[in-house]
Amino acid sequence: MACIAHDAIGYKGFSKVSVYEPSYSALMSSRGFEVPGRLCSLSQTMHVMEDGSVRPCPYIPYPLGNVMKNGLKDLWRRLKEDKFLQGLCDVNRVKGKCSECSFKEVCGGCRARAYWMLGDYFVEDKVCVLM
User: Fold this and answer.
1) Which residues have C-beta within 8 Å of that of residue 44, sequence separation ≥ 6?
2) CA–CA gap between residue 102 and residue 71 (Å, rounded)
3) pLDDT at residue 4, as a whole number
4) Mean predicted confidence (pLDDT) in 69-94
5) Confidence class of residue 66 from pLDDT cuts 50, 70 and 90?
6) Which of 18, 26, 109, 115 lies most in the core, judged by the most C-beta atoms within 10 Å?
7) What is the reported pLDDT for 19?
């Protein structure tokens, strides 16, 4: 995803910049840049916390296991097959303004922010700059 940000400023080189902000992809899409999908680490990245626990997102209190007890292959399988996480990634399950947004497919809002601000993973992202 770093190539989107670099292309926007005219940089064509390779970088390891990661942006995990759902509304960023919507903003880039609105400016005519091709966006290959959502910029959310859910089901795409394993986040290893200080105690070795693995989460799908550092801000979602949903441990998949622990690197000191579970193998990485097993943890990756859990990440990919977990029904709850699949639901979080399904933009058709979001509610409120996010469900009506024209950028829902490339954004979907931040599920962690929705949870921490309103207690529901599927409500609208109240911090969204697009609403």
Assistant:
1) none
2) 40
3) 45
4) 92
5) very high
6) 109
7) 56
* Whole-number percent of the chain with pLDDT over 70: 79
Residue found by looking up tokens 């670099």 in the block: 6
CA 69 – CA 110 distance, rounded (Å): 30
Distance from the Cα of residue 15 to its chain's centroid:
20
H/E element, 65: strand 65-66
Identify which of 18, 20, 74 has the alpha carbon closest to the alpha carbon of residue 42. Answer: 20
CA distance 130 to 26: 8
CA distances from 105 to 31, 47, 116 (A): 16, 24, 22
What residue spans of the chain are helical by DSSP H?
A: 2-8, 22-30, 72-81, 83-89, 97-100, 111-118
Whole-number Å distance between alpha carbons of 107 and 29: 10
